[in-house]
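Sanity check record (used in CI):
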Amino acid sequence: MRRRVVLDALWREPSRLLRLVCWSVAEALPSLTGGYAVARAVDDGFAAGRPGVGMAWLGVLAAAWAVAAVSARQVLLLIAGIVEPFRDDLLRRVVTGALRAGRGGDSAAVARMNHQVELARDSFGAIITVVRSFVFTLVSVAVGLSTLAPAVVPLVLPPVALGLGLFLVSLPSLARRQREFIVADECTAAAVAAMASGLRDVTACGAEERVAAEVGQAVTRQAASARALARVTATRTLSLAVGAWLPVVLLLAGAPWLVRQGITGGVILGTLTYVMQSLAPALGGLVQGLGVSGVRLAVTLERILHVPGPPALHGDTEPDTEPDTEPDTEPDGARLVLRGVRFAYGAAGRKAPEPVIDGLDLDVPEGDHLAVVGPSGIGKSTLAALVAGLLTPDEGEVLVGGVPAARVRPAARALIPQEAYVFPGTLAENLTYLAPGATPERVDEAVAAFGLTDLARRCAGGPLDPAELSAGERQLVALARTYLSPARLVVLDESTCHLDPVAEARAEAAFAARGGTLVVVAHRISSALRAKRVLVMDGTRVRLGSHEEMVAASPLYADLVGHWTGHWAGRSEELCSEGLSAGAVAEDADVSPGRRPEPAALGGDLNRLDA
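Expected output for ABC transporter ATP-binding protein:
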């Protein structure tokens, strides 16, 4: 699993990897030419009494370093282009796993998001850097030594291979110790978080000493793990001594023999340049990088990719602790189906709580416009979260295009909550965040559809300051952003609560004309009049039908409509004074009077809501 994640990140853009190889070759020019240029500068220049020749060869080396400096900049940019998407993927996995697990106060998940993902990102970048540098340096030095004097190769490359082998043999032990240290770190974080959340209870019960002892044990275990890790990492010193400095000793000790073989002083000095200026730093970087970053990456990836499943709600079964590795799936359309859905909030081991949603069946065809109506706290937002895949039902299933909601590809559905998110950046960047390929014409269409023309003129292409926008403007930006997205299922969870009725009607009309399936958790009852169908949730009965059917069948809905319309009927122009915009109701349509009908009962299964 870890290997696949790393390889996927590397091969995400093969063209970027190819450019990285090309720039790495250019960056390795000093390693290829350094020793040879020094040898020629000494033998053919300074030692021969021709300082001009010597300076010319040193000029060649300086030019190689200039090329390497430019190449190093390009290399860093290319590595960043590989590492940053890798970090985003890991963070998405951690957040998705934490949401699916449904555990409150999961400090281990917080540690993964705040600390371990960044560790993995930094470690991955460091590994690419040091491994790439060592490989290209080793090849360059081997070619340079073979060109300069093949007789010195046995004095240099075998010790390097031996030192590298010693280090690689020690890596499993390093990984084990690093894993133990990270687990101890998570345990310490969990112990401290639990203590901090219960300080009042600890003080009230006089349990300060006992709690301090428990937290102290976790800290002690973490310290012991850190010391054990430090002892194992000492093997890196031995590996570096053998691979980087033993060749220097062999060259100096064998200098008389090399001279008898016809090797000049310039060649010996050039060989030392290859070893000390190129090979030793590259090997040191590899040992340091893999010894710290490599082990850290392996362990943190193991922790990050091991995403536990949701806990048992009532203590009847053990939580699923297998990693959640199923990929997101593209749904077949945007039809929404709920079958026997039951959901309750509650912690494992406690008495089974009353369900918020119980035995709900619902079929919303693709292209439908459904308004969800009900009193506050009845479960409308819970239903929206289930549809969006943020919550998993205790029983039954929620399908979007035939795919379980939790498995739907994120880009295929969108949920807009009450509090809209706008990030610092231009208006265009905010609007195209979910649709980077949107054309300027399409963006202008969204700006006009959601009444953002004044905001666009005010910004004049400059960055937005979210703090300076009103709550309504932030909602309009979020709505327009989703309008431009490829999502075919859109859920508006009171996401127009800060808009005036005219702006709300305009936004809902834009989404209705956009196509796809639209589910609106109504903030105003006027949203129900604009919808094709209305779902009424009142805690004891759940009803589905058109506006007219619900006025006749649901006392709660009729009551809500009655309060809103003021007990009079009329045309759309007359309702503008009560908050419904002209055009929100058909020109010749009659509006049902807001009077409460006699209670009516529906036959059959009241929870069966198939259209």
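Residues 447 and 454 are 9 Å apart (CA to CA). If this sentence no longer matches the regenerated tokens, the check is flagged for review.
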